[in-house]
Amino acid sequence: MTIYRKIPLLLLAVSLCSQAALVPDRTRVIFNSKDKATSVKISNQSPKDPYLAYSWIEDEKGNKTDEYLTALPPIQRVNPSAATQVRIIKQDTVAQLPTDRETLFYYNLREIPPTPEKKSDAAILQIAVQSRIKLFWRPAALRKKTGERVELQLKVSQQGGDLLLENPTPYYLTIAYLGKDKKGVLPGFQSTMIAPFSRASTHTSGYSGNTFYLGYMDDYGALRMTTLSCQGNCTLTPVEATK
């Protein structure tokens, strides 16, 4: 009997590596429309067992689709302690996607473990991990420069116990941290992804202060911290990483 279990990839990459045999080399994929394809490297962390890697694409609503993007090969063997690649290929139909904003897809990877040797009549339970990472289709009109912090354009206002978040950019923004300091997130906070030109809100869980630490995920899956100073409207100030 095999059980499939989904594990989202965001800040839990280290935890994932300890649970999954097959591990993708990133937590998100940016597919620039000028490219014919992009690749995801998959490593088999098991030193003794080969696994099958089953790959597919889902749309924003979680529906399996290859209408716009296709993962090839859809299934392949990965030997112990070896690595392989999955190529994500665009179809001609990507011309139908919006040209003024990103489109969200998901790349899925399910590991299929080898059949265990049956040495007794005892039942054997296998856990097969499924990884799901965000895949952003970025049209040519969006010419984002390396290191450009479009996330700092996020507009934030404080209203009572809520922070209202407005994304005025054509990019998906993922808010992955909100706390009164850098020691931990506010109780109940969950990562929030804000679609282009849309809004979201998050509750501050009883914290009555007007200064916050807010963290967002950049194109490479790194957590970038800012400080929020709120007097109604909030001002974002980047926190530079210390060496």
UniProtKB/TrEMBL annotation:
Alphabetically ordered keywords of this record: Chaperone, Fimbrium biogenesis, Immunoglobulin domain, Periplasm, Signal
SUPFAM superfamilies according to UniProt: PapD-like (SSF49354), Periplasmic chaperone C-domain (SSF49584)
GO CC term (a single one): outer membrane-bounded periplasmic space
Gene3D superfamilies in the record: Immunoglobulins
Primary location recorded for the protein, binned into one broad class: periplasm
InterPro entries: Ig-like_fold (IPR013783), PapD-like_sf (IPR008962), Periplasmic_pilus_chap (IPR050643), Pili_assmbl_chap_C_dom_sf (IPR036316), Pili_assmbl_chaperone_bac (IPR001829), Pili_assmbl_chaperone_C (IPR016148), Pili_assmbl_chaperone_CS (IPR018046), Pili_assmbl_chaperone_N (IPR016147)
Positions of the Pili assembly chaperone C-terminal domain: 166-222
Cell compartments where the protein resides: Periplasm
Secretion signal, residue range per the UniProt entry: 1-20
GO terms (BP aspect): cell wall organization
All residue ranges annotated as the Pili assembly chaperone N-terminal domain in the record: 22-142
PANTHER family named among the record's database cross-references: FIMBRIAL CHAPARONE PROTEIN (PTHR30251:SF5), PILUS ASSEMBLY CHAPERONE (PTHR30251)
Similarity comment: Belongs to the periplasmic pilus chaperone family.
Name of the protein this chain belongs to: Molecular chaperone
Naturally occurring in which organism (per UniProt): Superficieibacter electus
